[in-house]
Amino acid sequence: MKFTAQQIAEILEGDIVGDPDVEVSKLSKIEEGTNSSLTFLSNPKYTQYIYSTKASVTIVNKSFVPENDITTTLIKVEDAYASFTKLLEYYNMAKLNKVGIEQPSFISESAKYGDNIYIGAFSYLGENVSIGDNVKIFANTYIGDNVVIGENTIIFSGAKIYSDTVIGSTCVINSGVIIGADGFGFAPQQDGSYKKIPQIGNVILENHVDVGAGTTIDRATMGSTIIRKGVKLDNQIQIAHNVEIGENTVIAAQTGIAGSTKVGENCMIGGQVGIAGHINIGNNVKIQAQSGIARNVKDDEVLQGSPALPITDYNKSYVHFKNLPKIVKNINDLEKNKWE
User: Which residue, 174, 160, 177, is CA-closest to 124?
Assistant: First the structure.
């Protein structure tokens, strides 16, 4: 796809300094710009590169005034970073704008789907599936019986959506995601074996939820595992049965949340955090990476460590911890001097 500087300026409501007819067909970093590429400058640390970049078009803030000669055509906007982000969204939409049903694929006769959808080759849609308008389902995706998917949702290749799952509108489900697999429920028996507890609930994702590649969200034993509106999940996260995650909470990679735990709204949870089951995490909580949470957490707490402490206590304790060898030596010296 090719666009002229004039067309881009119209989208961004920007002003052109240079050739309005110059064409671009790709995006680049400013220091790696090449002919026919589009880039941007928002961080002053990169200003030096605008004088050497070979990018055909560069988006800059309106306040930018070049101090030396430049060869790139400028598009001046209020916020270069925000404008470039807007272009990335346009580019991504255009790249993903596939329509139609590819073959071979299997769609149950009882499945219903809206307008302007895309279903990639080798996909499977089970009984009574309901899919909204503008949904994109890429190749090799499994959609089980009775699944509901809202409009404008994208499901990338290789995702597995088990039966009875409900996915809202404008969600993104990345490759390798598994939603609705059985929760980890086994009852110990007298002979030392374990008997599987049937998991008969489902998973509900509300609107505007993003799920990263390789993440798993287990179905509830009874009722629903619920991911509320606006939640963003990174890659390789484990959400266990009957967990509930509040609106606009973000969770980084390799975090695991055990069964029946409730996480509040607007929380920020770092990578490799382990959260025990059957506890409550309040609203606006921040948990630093590699922390272990085994207790209820109140609103607005900031925690670090395993077991996690309030972050100020953790930092104070860490000062002592790293000085432990010195402290032990001093104690030993005192004990030695005491008996001499």
Answer: 160
pLDDT tens-digit readout, 182-203: 999 999 999 999 999 999 999 9
Say whether 278 is catalytic.
no
Per-residue pLDDT of 257-293, as tens digits, reads 999 999 999 999 999 999 999 999 999 999 999 999 9
Cis peptide bond N-terminal to 325, omega within 30: no
Structure tokens that stand for 285 in this block: 């909580």
Please state the pTM of the whole predicted model.
0.82
User: What size, in residues, is the chain?
Assistant: 340
DSSP per residue, 127-176: TT-EE-TT-EE-SS-EE-TT-EE-TT-EE-TT-EE-TT-EE-TT-EE-TT
Give me the catalytic one of 208, 241, 278, 320: 241
Of the candidate CATH numbers 3.40.190.10, 3.40.630.10, 3.10.20.30, 3.40.1390.10, the domain formed by 3-95 belongs to 3.40.1390.10
